[in-house]
Design goal:
The structure holds 2 protein chains of 2 kinds. Chain A is α+β, with helices and mostly antiparallel strands. Chain A has helices at about 5-20, 70-75, 80-85, 140-145, 160-170, 180, 190-195, 205-210, 265-275, 295, 300-305, 325-330, 335-340, 365-370, 375, 390-395, 450-460, 475-490, 555, 580-590, 595-635, and strands at about 45-50, 105-110, 115-120, 210-215, 245, 255-260, 275-280, 385-390, 410-420, 425-430, 435-440, 445, 495-500, 505, 515, 525, 560, 570. Chain B is globular, with a radius of gyration of 19 Å. Classes of the chains: A alpha+beta, B mainly alpha. The interface of A and B includes residues 609 and 624 of A.
Chain lengths: ~625, ~200
């Protein structure tokens, strides 16, 4: 039961004056909580629980101006160790000391009007930029990407004073347990995204849950608005004040609410953020599209991407820090599950999935040393030039009003066959960075894209992107104009540059623009894990010449360069394979046509030699027999 | 382990040949003519020589490319060296067939050969010479080694064996190829020695 609003408001006012509000769930409990101690039962625990607001007070359907429920309080106050969970993979990107692991999918900041496309990550992934390092505060990040992460977010040092004030208006984003664990058919993550667009951070999970309807918009509230004191705004804004209207019929006796909570997240929940689709299939009927072979066989994401209470979800590549020293987690990689991690013959891990052992008949063993499993089995089948894909996080798939055009930014290319850290070749996705920056200590440091946008808007240099969400029409002359503008607005003598399409553009002495190669302009790559293709659809299913031919896309294909300035550019695939000898691969491909002859000739020779051997054996036996017969006669 | 065996076998072949060569040089005090006394016309003899030389060259090429990685103690045979090995081996397969066909009629183990085996050191001057007996023996050893050498490589080219089974085939290939090389070299030497003895006789 919540105390009356007036009393609460007094305490809340005191809180505002004294410092930031501190949630009740702050420390890990001394002993395991109720929901964190498995009983051993395989049945799903029933979750009929009281809703709690951020202060831990229970919510009743009849409350006057009720607050949205807090997921961290509702789930964490007596049942689950939220503090431990908040250190899990989906929540720990910004925490210090967390192993980044191999490069993963970045958040991609798009501003078509300034021809900007920057891969961002709070993790230390080479090729991405930390949001706070380029002036993107937590609030801007949350507004752009908050709908696609269950991670909590609150004000950080990169937030402007204005943004810090707005956090008090919108409320913070809590860890959203329901995003993964709510199996209710009415839980709607797209509604969560819509609420974020209205800046209703505080209300998003409540609205998405379907337990309540949220009206109003924090975006319309002034900076001094406090949701605990809604009456403080002027009359014209009263209709826009965010309000929660709980569905009374959802409350059972005892003022508790039934949740359809599952320990193992439903794949449908994963897909909201992790859908990946070829652009050619965007807007097409899904029944014609393929699916990951594991999913087609009835498996769920969490059967491989698993975790304990710490929510350190396994990423299942070989060398995953989450699997270090954990034989069970290690067995969840492709090789671990299908080939066994101990003797190469064990096909069933402790999870009992009994994954089929790959026969790989006719495949020389060196392929298993030089290639990742995904090289042949994951991502789209390659063609001469890389294609494009869309994914949920970058393109807002599944959200209301997402631009479904195939040209919508960001442009993500695939598959790029590049070398992993361990030297194996693997398929990757690629995004080409495009941003304005300044050269500092030999590196191009991206400028805050929002600041660039404001600057270009003020000088009418920003470009109107087309309706399909593609790059706007820009050219090198425009780049020169913007570079000159940035030069004039520079606080120091640092040089302004533009990176796009694999090149770095800078002003030359004559005032023109010169383009040059630059490592920072190279595409950011992250490994393709899905969709996994079965053996019949893998590379090599049509024979060795899937890869060993003069036109093989994996060695001699082209990677389409994405640039707002130049269309149709390509890089050779070999640029991403530094230790692969392209000349040798071409020689091998050229020699392949003789392989049939070699097989036929060698088979014929082997057969004739075998016949000669049999003949010789026969002749030797005849001779030996004659010799023995003669000795007997002599003896007689 | 395999590298040590290869070095041991090669060393043994060299020592055997060198010892026999020294023995012959010291006892005869003359150079070997090293010319086989073959029957037939000039063209046929020329053809035989060409086939034998081609077989020897292809064997040398396949041997060098095949055992280079082993002797250099590198991890595996791969890259251009493997390509060269397969090319040389393809040539060797053809040449080996020709050599086998040319030599098989003179390599049958007849009653006289078994008698020579039974006689041991007490052989009479009328019986088959040791060089011929050894030549025949090494011919069949080489032939018997050539079949698994070829078959193991061939099987690996077809979608029959798994990577693990291919590794086993590779082991078969490596062992039988070693026997093939040793047998072929000894066969060649014994053929030359027998030819010399035949000519002298």
């Amino acid at each position: 039961m919540r105390p009356s609003l007036s009393i609460l408001s007094m305490f809340a006012m005191a809180g505002i004056l004294c410092g930031p509000r501190s949630p009740a769930v702050a420390q890990s409990p001394q002993s395991p909580l109720l929901g964190d101690v498995p009983s051993g039962s395989r049945s799903r625990p029933v979750h009929v629980i009281a809703l709690r607001d951020e202060n831990g007070d229970t919510i009743q359907p009849g409350d006057h101006l009720p607050l949205p429920f807090s997921t961290e309080q509702t789930c964490g106050v007596t049942c689950h160790d939220v503090k431990t969970i908040r250190r899990g993979w989906h929540f720990n990107a910004a925490l210090p000391g967390v192993a980044a692991g191999r490069n993963g999918e970045p958040w991609i900041w798009i501003d078509a009007a300034t021809a900007t496309q920057i891969p961002l990550s709070y993790r230390n992934w080479a090729g991405t930029y930390r949001p706070q390092d380029i002036g993107i505060g937590a609030r801007a990040f949350a507004l752009r990407f908050g709908a696609r992460t269950p991670a909590p977010m609150e004000s950080d040092a990169a937030d402007s004073p204005q943004d810090r004030a707005r956090w008090n208006v919108s409320g913070k984003l809590e860890a959203n347990c329901l995003a993964c664990h709510d199996r209710s058919p009415i839980y709607d993550q797209a509604e969560f995204a819509r609420q974020l667009g209205l800046e209703n951070f505080h209300y998003a999970a409540t609205s998405a849950s379907g337990l309540a309807v949220v009206t109003g918009s924090s975006s319309k509230m002034p900076n001094q608005f406090d949701f605990l004191l809604p009456g403080s705004v002027e009359d014209s804004l009263q209709p826009s004040i965010p309000q929660v209207h709980y569905a009374a019929e959802r409350f059972l006796a005892g003022q508790k609410v039934p949740f359809d909570i599952a320990r193992q997240a439903d794949s449908n929940r994963c897909y909201f953020c992790h859908t990946e689709v070829d652009v050619a299939l965007t807007g097409k009927e899904r029944w014609k599209a393929g699916e990951d072979v594991h999913m087609a066989r009835g498996m769920a994401c969490v059967q491989c991407h698993s975790n304990g209470l710490n929510h350190a979800i396994t990423r299942n590549y070989e060398g995953d820090p989450a699997a270090q020293g954990n034989a069970f987690a290690d067995s969840l990689s492709c090789r671990g599950c299908h080939m066994g991690s101990a003797n190469g013959q064990q096909t069933a891990g402790p999870h009992g999935l009994n994954a089929p052992f790959p026969e790989h008949k006719g495949l020389p063993a060196i392929h298993l040393e030089k290639l990742s499993c995904t090289f042949c089995h994951a991502g789209p089948m390659p063609s001469g030039t890389t294609g494009r894909m869309k994914n949920a996080r970058a393109h807002g798939l599944g959200e209301h009003n997402a631009n479904l055009d195939v040209e919508t930014l960001p442009h993500i290319g695939e598959p790029v066959y590049a070398q992993q850290g361990d030297g194996k070749l693997a398929p990757y996705r690629a995004v080409w960075p495009a941003f304005w920056g300044r050269m500092i200590a030999g590196r191009a440091v991206p400028l805050n894209p929002e600041w660039v946008r404001r600057l270009l808007d003020s000088k009418k240099l920003s470009r109107q992107p087309p309706a399909n969400g593609n790059w706007p029409s820009v050219d090198v002359a425009w780049v020169r104009q913007v570079l000159q503008l940035l030069k004039q607005s520079a606080p120091s003598q640092t040089e302004a540059v533009y990176i796009a399409g694999g090149k770095l553009y800078r002003l030359d002495a004559a005032g023109g623009v010169k383009a040059e190669a630059n490592a920072q302009a190279e595409p950011y790559l992250w490994a393709i894990g899905h969709d996994v293709r079965p053996a019949s659809q893998a590379l090599g299913a049509n024979g060795c010449q899937d890869c060993h031919s003069k036109t093989s896309p994996v060695f001699f294909g082209e990677v389409a360069v994405d640039s707002p300035l130049e269309q149709g550019g390509v890089w050779k695939m070999s640029r991403f394979q530094p230790t692969v000898d392209a000349a040798y691969q071409m020689s091998l491909a050229n020699s392949w046509k003789y392989r049939v002859w070699l097989k036929v000739t060698a088979s014929g020779v082997a057969i004739i030699l075998l016949l000669l051997l049999l003949g010789g054996t026969y002749q030797a036996l005849v001779g030996l027999s004659a010799r023995i017969s003669r000795r007997r006669r002599d003896h007689v | 382990m395999y590298r040590a065996v290869v070095i041991g076998v090669f060393a043994m072949v060299v020592v055997l040949i060198a010892t026999d060569l020294m023995r012959r040089l010291l006892s005869r005090k003359a150079q070997f003519p090293f010319r086989e006394a073959v029957r037939g016309g000039v063209l046929l003899r020329l053809f035989r020589i060409c086939v034998n030389v081609a077989g020897g060259v292809c064997l040398a090429a396949a041997t060098v490319t095949g055992f280079a990685a082993v002797l250099a103690n590198t991890h595996t045979l791969g890259g251009y060296l493997l390509m060269a090995h397969v090319t040389a081996a393809g040539g060797f397969a053809g040449a080996a067939l020709a050599v086998a066909v040319l030599w098989v009629s003179r390599s049958w183990f007849m009653k006289a050969d078994w008698e020579r085996v039974a006689e041991g050191k007490k052989h009479s001057s009328a019986s088959v010479s040791l060089a011929v007996l050894l030549r025949k023996s090494f011919f069949w050893i080489a032939l018997a080694s050539a079949v698994p050498t070829l078959a193991s490589a061939l099987l690996a080219m077809f979608p029959i064996a798994s990577p693990a089974q291919q590794q086993e085939l590779l082991q078969v290939h490596r062992i039988s190829a070693l026997a093939l090389v040793a047998g072929s070299v000894m066969f060649a030497y014994c053929a030359l020695a027998a030819a010399w003895e035949e000519r002298k006789g």
